[in-house]
Amino acid sequence: MARRNETGASISSARSPRCARSLHAVLAALVVAAAWLVSGCAIDPMVRLNEDIESEDIQVRREAVLRLANLDDQRAVMALNEVFEDDPQLRDVAAVALVKKGREQVTERKPDPIIDGIAALANNVHLSEIVRARAAWILGEIGDREAIPALKTAAGAKLASGAVAELVRAQATQALEKLGYKETGRPFEIPMGTLADQEMTTLIEPEAIEPEADAEAEAA
């Protein structure tokens, strides 16, 4: 039986259903939070990073790329690919981050998902030539000879118009030299033994990809 106060009203009736529901919601949230802490789980960082790479603030996007480069998560590769394709301002630093991922995530799975994905970009005639050329550069810098077939294709690349894709061909040829496919070798721009399993504290800018002097002279 409910106790009554001096006015005769039931004390239990003074508690509204809304208050009871609110208290229940708070307790439920505390239980969930405690469960996450006990299990060692934390908030998924990819949720915030996927938002940050879409920010209008380039500094926010740069910080997101750096965190993605160091994040041990397969989904980070997909996010970096998105930056590489869609963000001209950060394309080159995202390319270096993808080299890091390619060197770290060595797998017996064939085709290698990272190399296969970058190779598809290098040989996609519907993408801009600079994106394709930088993709060929990534394949060479990763240093895995599995990329040779794709680079051989890229070494004869053409644009969607049918014109010769000079930048793509040049980068693909240089990449093949790095992988030891050509008689003339070429050193890696980013020395092998760096990047992999090392935390990046700052974003690395690779050398710019520019038309070779011979190509410019012919165009003139």
| Count of the separate structural domains | 2
Number of helices: 10
Named CATH architecture of the largest domain: Alpha Horseshoe
Overall, the morphology is: globular
Radius of gyration: 27 Å
> How do the helices and strands follow one another from N- to C-terminus?
HHHHHHHHHH
Q: Describe the main β-sheet briefly.
A: none
Strand content: under 5%
State the helical fraction. Answer: 55-70%
Tell how many strands the DSSP assignment holds: 0
Query: What separation lies between the terminal Cα atoms?
Result: 99 Å
Briefly, what CATH class of the largest domain? Answer: Mainly Alpha
Low-confidence stretches: 1-15, 35-39, 214-220
Structural class: mainly alpha
Do you know the CATH topology of the largest domain?
Answer: Leucine-rich Repeat Variant
How do the helices and strands line up, and which of them pair or pack?
Blueprint: H1 17-39, H2 45-52, H3 58-70, H4 74-86, H5 91-104, H6 113-122, H7 129-142, H8 148-154, H9 166-178, H10 213-219
Describe the 3D structure:
This protein is mainly alpha-helical. It has helices spanning 17-39, 45-52, 58-70, 74-86, 91-104, 113-122, 129-142, 148-154, 166-178, 213-219. The chain folds into 2 domains: 1-42; 45-219, Alpha Horseshoe (Leucine-rich Repeat Variant). It contains 10 helices and no strands. It starts with 16 loop residues before the first helix and ends with a helix. The model is unreliable at 1-15, 35-39 and 214-220 (pLDDT under 50).
